[in-house]
Design a protein that fits this description.
306 residues, 7-stranded mixed β-sheet, 15 strands, 30% helix
């Protein structure tokens, strides 16, 4: 069968022939999202990468079973990736989708939506309050704004660099938007921060928020999700002493696989309903090299279609 194949961490995948997958159930892949998580695995920089090549990228997708069911599934650990014509599926890691579901939208939306969904539901135990999305203009950040509102946030603030992209967030549910240089003035008293940036922007935002906070003893949960700005952060120690600040991470390893899988049905149903705005662009799997090289538009998620 044909698949996207990574043979060097320094080169994009190529469209090539590989052996058929093996497993208890083999399905026909309909769509697989080109997520940042997929890119980092394919260039060897993701923290779970073991450096083994060749590899087929892709961590999730939508597929059709032999019985005709439409499934959203998460690839098994150490299995070949989902950017292929066929894949092996473990039903414990799959959700049956209703007929009429847009498979491209689901393939595009589940992974980025899961980042904030899992962070709020499983890491923050969120039951309301105000939320700042730091790095809200990207695909995952836009979904985070919508998901925070869906989960009962009383106020959602979207923060980013691009003023034009920030304007779009109000139509997605943001109560306020702000540039990164003015976060402290607008989001000083939020309860939760969903951080997709890290690095210097996070350090500046954290300091500004804590200095402007009306009550520093009021708990603030800072959830590190992504590192679009940098992978490392220099943090003054006094910030941890001067406020009731808790910094946690949310991602593969900090949440059990069982807990992540338990969240899939409700999130899949939410995307399937169309309640979340998902901006997806389908690209033929045969054009994987081109898709890899071309940056996605702001807020867009490329989906490879065999």
């Amino acid at each position: 069968m044909y698949a996207a194949v990574v043979r060097s961490f320094d080169e994009p995948p190529t469209y090539d022939v590989i052996p058929e997958p093996t497993g208890s159930e083999v399905v026909e892949v309909v769509a697989a999202g080109l997520h940042p998580r997929v890119r980092s695995a394919a260039n060897g920089t993701h923290y779970t990468s073991e450096g083994s090549l060749p590899m087929v990228p892709g961590i999730d997708g939508v597929a059709r079973s032999a019985e005709g069911e439409l499934l959203y599934f998460v690839a098994e650990d150490n299995a070949i990736g989902t950017m292929a014509e066929r894949a092996a599926v473990d039903r414990r890691r799959a959700v049956v989708l209703s007929e009429g579901t847009d498979p491209v939208a689901v393939a595009a939306g589940m992974n980025p939506a899961m980042s904030s969904w899992i962070a709020l539901r499983r890491r923050a135990n969120f039951h309301g309050g105000s939320v700042l999305v730091l790095g809200a203009t990207g695909n995952a950040g836009q979904l985070a704004v919508q998901i925070a509102k869906h989960l009962g946030a009383s106020k959602v603030v979207g923060a980013g660099r691009d003023p034009e992209r920030l304007k779009l967030l109000t139509s997605l549910g943001a109560d306020e938007t702000v540039g990164l240089d003015a976060v402290g003035a607008v989001a000083a008293d939020v309860d939760v921060v969903l951080d997709y940036l890290w690095g210097e922007p996070t350090g500046q935002a954290m300091s500004a928020i804590l200095h402007a906070r009306s009550d520093r003893a009021r708990p603030l949960t800072w959830i590190q999700i992504g590192s679009m700005a940098a992978r490392e952060l220099t943090l003054p120690s006094y910030l941890l002493r001067a406020a009731a600040l808790t910094i946690i991470g949310s991602g593969q390893g900090s949440v059990s696989g069982r807990d992540i899988l338990a969240e899939l049905p409700e999130l899949a149903a939410l995307i399937t309903s169309g309640e979340l705005a998902v901006n997806a662009r389908p690209v033929p799997l045969a054009e994987v090299g081109k898709a890899w090289a071309e940056p996605a538009a702001p807020g867009e998620r490329v989906v490879l279609v065999p």
